[in-house]
Structure formats: C-alpha cells, structure tokens
Design a protein that fits this description.
The chain has about 120 residues and is mostly helical. It is about 85% helix and about 0% strand. This is Stage V sporulation protein AE.
Length: about 120
C-alpha cells in the first residue's frame, strides 16, 4: 500500500503543477518556483513531514521536497546556532542533493552524445 500512496501523492503534486502551468499559462520555471515555495510553506507549518511519513517517495521526489529541505535545514540549524544557522542549515541539508545533481549531469555529458 506504501507504493500506491507514493504514486498517488507524487502524481497529485505533479498534476497540481501541470494544472497551474495550463490554467495560468505560466512557464515551467515559474511553476517550479511556486512548487518549491509551497513545499517551504508546508514545512514551515509542520505539514510536510507528516506527508513524507504517509507518502514516502511520493512526497520526497517532487520539487516541493526541495523547498521542504531548505526550510527544514534552516529551522533546525537556527535552533542550534541562531541567525547564522539559517544560512548554514540551508547549505548543510541541500549540499548532498546539489552535489549529486552536478556529478550525475557531468557523467551524463561524458557518456551521452548530443544531437545537434
């Protein structure tokens, strides 16, 4: 049942993004920002962690999870280190994901042949 809920919640998040894009005629970059901010707001309200516990990868894979990670890291480090913890927390929590994206993009560029 975990896989079903992950599929349903992840699909719902993506469908909301598609509806925003189609309904308001926004470019994908704007919709991405809206979804990141939505994830940040949901984490700030304390609602994203229960969603992750319920939906698993359905809530951690979409772009809303990046907003969740930013706020989650900032708030946890702010409790420990004060104002400077807000900045360091953002980098600490998201650095692994950003580093992985850079490494895999590099590897894809090494092994893929561009069409042009």
């Amino acid at each position: 049942m975990t896989f079903v809920w992950a599929f349903v919640i992840g699909g719902l998040i993506c469908a909301i993004g598609q509806l925003i894009m189609d309904g308001f005629k926004l470019p994908p970059g704007n919709v991405m920002v809206i979804l990141v901010v939505a994830g940040a707001i949901l984490d700030g309200l304390g609602w994203y962690d229960p969603l992750i516990r319920f939906a698993g990868a359905g809530a951690t894979v979409p772009i809303t999870s990046f907003g969740n990670a930013l706020v989650h890291g900032a708030l946890s480090e702010a409790d420990k280190h004060g104002l400077i913890g807000i900045i360091t927390g953002i980098f600490e929590v998201t650095s692994a994901g950003v580093s992985a994206a850079i490494i895999f993009a590099f590897l894809a560029s090494v092994f893929a042949k561009p069409k042009g």
